[in-house]
Amino acid sequence: MEVSDKPSAVGGPVVPRNGERRGLSPREIRITGGYWADVKTLNREAIIAHCDEWMERIGWTSNFDRIAAGDGTHAGIEFVDSEVYKLLEAMAWQLGSAPDAAMESRYLQLVGRVAAAQDEDGYLDTSFGHAGQRARYTDFEWGHELYCFGHLIQAAVARLRTGHDDLLPNVARKLVAHLWREFGPNGRQAVCGHPEVEMALVEFGRATANDDAVELARLFVERRGHGLLSPVRFGAEYFQDDVPVRSAEVLRGHAVRAYYLASGAIDVAVETNDTDLLAAVERQIETTVSRRTYLTGGVGAHHLDEAFGADYELPPDRAYAETCAAVASVMANWRLLLTGATGADDRIERVLLNNVLASPRQDGRAFFYTNTLHQRTRGIQPDDHTVIERAETSLRAPWFTVSCCPTNIARTLASAELYFATATSDGIDLHQYGQYEIDTTVASQRVRIDVSGDYPFEGAVRITFATAVGDDFRLGLRVPDWAEVGTIVRRGAETAAPSGRTELFGPFAEGETIELRLPMDARIVHPHPRIDAIRGQIAVERGPLVLALESTELPPDLEVDDVEVDPEIGLRTEGDGAQLLLRSRSPKPQSPSWPYGSAEPAAPGRQFVARLYPYSRWGNRGPSSMRIWIPAAP
Ligand SMILES: [Zn+2]
User: Fold this and answer.
1) Ligand 1 centroid vs 158 CA: distance in angstroms?
2) Distance, CA of 633 to CA of 602 (rounded, Å)
3) How many Å lie between the centroid of ligand 1 and the Cα of residue 406?
4) How far is the CA of 14 from the centre of ligand 1 (A)?
5) CA 307 / ligand 1 centre spacing (Å)
6) DSSP code at position 7
7) Are strands 427-430 and 474-479 parallel, antiparallel or unpaired?
8) How far apart are CA 19 and CA 333, in angstroms?
9) pLDDT, tens only, 394-420
């Protein structure tokens, strides 16, 4: 019962009804080559297929078939429905960017199975409310019903935004009507233990002009922080129920929950013109970025509750930095970016390239759930055919008991290019670089731009106009924060451009090329003095990429903890990484007897040069030790 395309609904992730910047739809931006083409191919051919195969194999997908058949038997933990929905969202975005008959057919088959499990009144959950199961809405703390609904709704929004108003959007319509009756102004005063439904409802309200959906999201945001959830062992802050959203000073508690809630709160604030709420959440994120975020952009310093630590509590060897928290921070920062906020695109770049893309193995069939910055000992290689607990191994694993990360990567990479550029009433802003083309309309004139260069490995970004545009056209470029200063070359003239946004004005002739040159020499990074866990250590970056030292690059008798940076600090750019002069601690520090106070400092050992390369690639050659922050010799 497909209806013709509804252009008003077409777009990318997050389409505010009012806002400074407009994201592009899959029809307006397309990856043409380079690094991101490889990433997109990996996602299409391996990651999406892998998620689909695993969920079919272990019965998470057939949970829907059993409910449809009146059988309440359930495979997996309570919220595995959400993984099927994130897979559907990934497929929807992927299909929006490149038609694929086989994937389309599989997508429609999966949606049909999901739809068959929907109850008459719109409720749809394979863990609650059916024969032999717990009753609906009896466990808001851990049941994740609204969280799962949020993912279903987001998958439906992806389908609408890619030009199809068909079965899944209709399932979502029935579900949202049920939620309005159940939790609306006259309904239950409740919130879900895991935020997610808030941003989904706002997005659904935008895509279908449903004001009730936006109002329900607003109610959920405002209700949180008033103790509606029963206490859990991690405290009310775990699910951000300790302080009302607009009164909080920083993100805290479970990191994924915190960033999903921030995303929903930004959506509500933008859609209801609540400038106080928007300012409050923006402040919270700024503080979180400056005090509670790893060099890779990762967040979450506590394993036990997957939560933020205190300010500057950022131990590299105990970094949790869950892949989903990285995805969640991209979502929140993208929302800020659309409001016109500065710096959000720098953060998106750092976390995408150095945390999200560190998770998948190079063959796309195993994933880091947590993304440590320091692996002290060589881990144990998980079996490629066994489900493991979330963070029990130090190497990438194929699937998890809580398998939120692989499907989150799939949907993020399927829509990645939609975070690259925005349009305004007078021009185009480029936020991320790579090889892609834009074909859109600005102020009634068609604009085609081709972006090329070997970014993120090379610093020359070329922007070529395939259509001529007039003198009222504005081209906005991001000069990355890591670059400090870039060079713009236009019609042979070179201009220095400090980090931040640089604007160029038309006219631009057809075929005219602007070049942005960024410095790509490897550079030393020093830690914030308050982060005790890495004091006296340095890291190396090249361009937007954080580099790492892996034991595979060391003499065979050494692990990464046996070396330090030589005081001569010889650093040379090499390939897409760097060479760094190190020295062993020789002899290896003897284990001084506890309590250590009388230990002699280790004598300087032999010098050697080791190769550092992008952190996102570590752990692809079997068990190894690895560190980003390396001790600097005193
Ligand atoms: Zn996860």
Assistant:
1) 20
2) 10
3) 7
4) 21
5) 12
6) G
7) parallel
8) 14
9) 789 999 999 999 999 999 999 999 999
